[in-house]
Structure prediction request, 124 residues.
Amino acid sequence: QVQLVESGGGLVQAGGSLRLSCAAAGRTFSSAAVAWFRQAPGKEREFVAAISWSGGSLRYADSVKVRFTISRDNLKKTAYLQMFSLKPEDTAVYSCAASLAGVPSFAPEEYDYWGQGTQVTVSS
Prediction:
C-alpha cells in the first residue's frame, strides 16, 4: 500500500512560481514511478510529468517541459513538481500518482495509487 498526500498549492500571479510536494507512506514508494496529473474545470485530466523509481527517466507534457521540473527524494519519501513561469492556463487541481511498475507513463491507467489533489490557481 502507498498513501500519497499533496501539498504546496495556492494562488499565484502569472509569471510566478510554486513547488508542489507529494509525501508518501509505504515501503514500496522507492520502487514506484511517480507522476503528476492535473484537471481544470470542464476539462479532462491531463498528464503533466513523470519520473522513474530511480529518477533516471523523466517525461513531460509539451506544454510544461520547459517550465516545470519533476524530482524525488526517496530517503524523504517525497516527490516534487517545481513550477516556474506559471500561466493562467496552468490553473487546475494537481494530483500525484504512483505506479508499482516503476516506469514513468503518460497514461493514468498505469498508476495504482492516487492522492486527493491540491489546487493551483494562477491569476492574470
Remarks:
- The longest strand covers residues 18-25.
- The mean pLDDT is 94.
- DSSP finds no helices and eleven strands in the chain.
- Residues 15 and 86 are 5 Å apart (CA to CA).
